[in-house]
Design brief:
The structure is a single chain. The chain is α+β, with helices and mostly antiparallel strands. The chain has nine helices and four strands; from the N terminus they run H-H-H-E-H-E-H-H-E-H-H-H-E. About 45% of the residues lie in helices and about 15% in strands. Strands 1-2-4-3 form a four-stranded mixed beta sheet. The longest helix has 17 residues.
Length: about 220
């Protein structure tokens, strides 16, 4: 029985291997760098190496479930089933809450809190001002998709405290975009205006949009 040839044959193959990752980064629209020669260096051999490289193996089970989350009985049964074998779990809702009505977010927050195993909740959050701007910019596109933006609580993360979720960490989209060097055009002007504004207005601007970590607490 013939054995398969090794993935890497010599030290030159390690260069082709790394070159393929550089080529993939170059292909990204938000690339951190661009290397026009990477794909040329990698060649077909580099493509083959990357195909044969073992990928990361998940340490958890993965399950895709098709469900209408507005079906409360089905949703609650699903959450109970997921929480049952867990002691400490984190819930992630990305690009989701903004499309729900406030009462629907409240209902979901209560249902998540009902499961003791759900200790943390990570979600993105927009302020009313940001929501207004997004609606103005993307109204037609969102209307065509029947996906209007709805949820942006005036009290910010305080909205969730009423349902058993306290703010544990707040990552401002504005600050993170600067840290990652992915700021919007003319960001320098907004930074200048922020310096001239009052402390209260600077904080309002910082909290326009964010990714937040919420932690479960006992509701009195």
């Amino acid at each position: 029985m013939r054995s398969r040839p090794p993935v890497l044959r010599d030290i030159s193959d390690t260069a082709r291997w790394v070159a393929m990752y550089r080529a993939r980064e170059t292909d990204r629209p938000d690339a951190r760098f661009r290397d026009p020669y990477a794909r040329l260096l990698a060649g077909e051999r580099g493509e083959e190496i990357l195909r044969r490289m073992p990928g990361e193996r998940p340490r958890c089970s993965r399950e895709s479930v098709k469900m209408d989350l507005s079906d409360l009985s089905a949703r609650r049964a699903f959450l109970a089933r997921i929480a049952a074998p867990s002691r400490k779990a984190v819930v992630v809702t990305e690009g989701f809450l903004a499309y729900l009505a406030e009462e629907d977010v409240a209902s979901l927050a209560r249902d998540l809190h009902d499961q003791i195993a759900f200790r943390w909740w990570i979600t993105d959050l927009a302020s009313p001002l940001l929501l207004k701007r997004l609606r103005r910019s993307y109204r037609r596109v969102l209307a065509e998709a029947n996906a209007p933006l709805r949820f942006a609580p005036g009290e910010g993360t305080g909205f969730f405290a009423k349902y058993g979720w306290n703010e544990a960490e707040f990552r401002s989209t504005w600050e993170e975009s600067r840290r990652l060097k992915r700021e919007m055009p003319m960001a320098w002007l907004f930074r200048l205006l922020a310096r001239l504004a009052s402390t209260q207005r600077r904080e309002m601007f910082r909290r326009l949009g964010a990714t937040v970590l919420l932690e479960r607490h006992v509701v009195s």
